[in-house]
Amino acid sequence: MDVSPILDPLNEAQRAAVTSEDVPALVIAGAGSGKTRVLVHRIAWLCEVHSVSPFSVLAVTFTNKAAAEMRARVESLLKHALGGMWIGTFHGISHRLLRAHWQEAGLKENFQILDSDDQLRLVKRIIQDMGLDDSRWPPKQARGYINARKEEGLRAGQLQHRNDPAARQLVRIYTAYEQECERTASVDFAELLLRSLELLQQNQEILDHYRRKFRHILVDEFQDTNAIQYAWLRTFAGEENPVFAVGDDDQSIYGWRGARIENLHNFERDYRNTQLFRLEQNYRSTNTILSVANALIDNNRERMGKKLWTEGVTGDPVCLYAAFNEQDEARFVAERIRQWVEAGHSRRDDIAVLYRSNAQSRVFEEVFISHSVPYRVYGGLRFFERAEIRDALAYLRLARNPDDDPSFERVVNVPSRGIGQRTMALVRERAVRNRVTLWKAAEEMLQSRSLTTRAAHALERFLQFMSTLEEEIRALVLDAQIDHILRSTGLMSHHGREGSEKAKSRVENLKELVVTARSFDLDNELYKEMLPADAFLVHAALEAGEGQGAIWEDCVQLMTLHAAKGLEFALVFIVGMEEGLFPSDMSKEEPGRLEEERRLCYVGITRAREQLVFTYAESRRRYGADSYYNSPSRFIGELPPELIAEVRPRAMVSTPVRTRSMPGRPGQNSGIGVGDSVVHAKFGRGVVLDCEGAGSNARVQVNFEREGSKWLVLAYANLDKLV
Ligand code: ATP
Ligand code: MG
Q1: Is the shortest distance between the CB of 430 and ligand 1 below 6 Å?
Q2: Ligand 1 probe mutation, 37, 289, 600, most atoms within 8 A of CB
Q3: What is 383-544's CATH number, 1.25.40.10, 3.40.50.2300, 1.10.486.10, 1.10.10.10?
Q4: How far apart are CA 105 and CA 71, in angstroms?
Q5: CATH of span 4-90+193-281
Q6: What does pTM read for this prediction?
Q7: Residue 664 zone, left/alpha/beta (φ > 0; ψ -120 to 50; rest)
Q8: Which of 312, 496, 614, 694 has the least CB density, counted as fewest CB within 10 Å?
Q9: Tell me, what's the pLDDT at 389?
Q10: CB distance 611 to ligand 1 below 6 Å
Q11: Strand bridging mode 57-61 / 216-219
């Protein structure tokens, strides 16, 4: 047997981990040191050398994209397709288990997945139905409470708060929520994990089956597992099946969602004979990028501590650009991308723009469109979460399952068909009273003639329409089903008529949905024995948080720093590097949170192979208001200055209007121009580098001795000129 394709591409430390004995193993290593590579090669090694069947391997990772990539890499090493292999996310694999054992799990066969938005609507409605004031009981908080309890493995019935009225109320909401989910056969994300864990714990036969089946359990990004995920892994493993976990404590970025870095320590305690491996050579980044990453993370106190080195080239300095505002920031990035691609450095899909929060993507999208830079928002502007897409899918869901209340609620009057709030309130009331679904309640009300003629008419037409729709689409292929829904429901013409830019993009998205359905891969083992429509709905629900999943042809990738975990790109921009934004204001209050933000920055930096660029905007519109004088993120200040090259704005940006009469000297009376020395009350002394605009828009760029360069609006800056 030739094992060279498996072992040759590995260094010694990696090889030791890949070929280790069948005992629990923990690989703790820094970014880009080949953890994921080790995991993939370990699977291939087990299959080739130990004749383990690929179907006896359970591999868990964090995103659908990472799972798809892992599967592809294993397939290429083993040289055959492995559709049925159990590689997936915690949610995806839990879902697969629940589909296979829905009866034992106490579910209905056609159970639906509630994504976080569906969940919020449901919680909101429950709070209303309970007659509670939702300013005192904010639905988001209640949803957070429910999810957090589920992630601790706790059901409403297990919670008691005799002395705490507020907690008692939340438990009541949780209880009502559980009942609603039961009644409508709905399962939220946290429930997927909890339910599948309970399934295994409460059904010895099923548990034994899977313990015999999965002899090897491998998990990537282990540092970000939370309590229930860890319990889930341990349950699968039992005493006999070794877990092979790889992770990096410096990249733990989901503490805010309950991830527990302690799991890394617990692992060694829970599995006494754990073998520990460390990898220290980084293969991804230039020496400069790695040094910058190391310097940053050195500021964290709570670390397991490790050294990373590389044999790679020194590489170019890391760039820093101080933009005037967020528009300027995006223009700079667009221009840089153009130069990079023109110089033939890499394709566009090997370039990423990373930001702290999803809201930052909008300006980049606008500027990229006007500069003709093809891009894809990855995660974030979630395709499947857009309202128009959700409407269309809700029709499909309701056609498949009339008992799906969230979908009923969503589309009953979209587009408007004269079914008002009052009618719906009556239907809801009846559904709750008789413990039936909205559909059944509506039918009952029509039979008992308890509605006004007009309301009854409208409601009857809707029920009739849905029944016909179900019949009409039954025989169609998936994309034709969607196409039919878009037309017959009037969704397409509803948006088409409106004519605004927004409406146009909605129409585009709806068309895109048909295309997505056409290219939907039904061969995936996950969807075995499911009807295409059901499979597609599951795909949409599980994929929602991650955008469209696929890497699009030669498009720049836009995503949050969180979504970039595990990925790598030739050129990386980390934008919005401002105090208050990154690290966020909220995180500054808790020391632990600030360290987590720093780890997030470390994750961002270590995504870059060749070139890293930081940008920040001195003024930025946030929540509708301008904020001026943003100072650069403290993380910038923590980097070695000799490795950072500040980019001068003038060379890069097309300069807006200048005063014609006095070039480089704005404001008739200010008398301030390029080269002047000035003093600012807060920033101290500096020299004027540039100026633009006129009148109240006049602004100057000053290089301050202490604070570095800043753009200031002259009218507010109160600069004093030094002679
Ligand atoms: P992260 O912490 O970001 O998840 P990682 O530790 O999982 O990173 P990988 O993604 O496995 O690292 O590897 C980083 C890069 O280095 C990849 O491009 C990989 O192909 C390459 N690489 C890993 N090991 C080697 C090796 N021994 N020889 C050459 N290239 C390697
Ligand atoms: Mg990795």
Answers
A1: no
A2: 37
A3: 1.10.486.10
A4: 28
A5: 3.40.50.300
A6: 0.76
A7: left
A8: 496
A9: 87
A10: no
A11: parallel
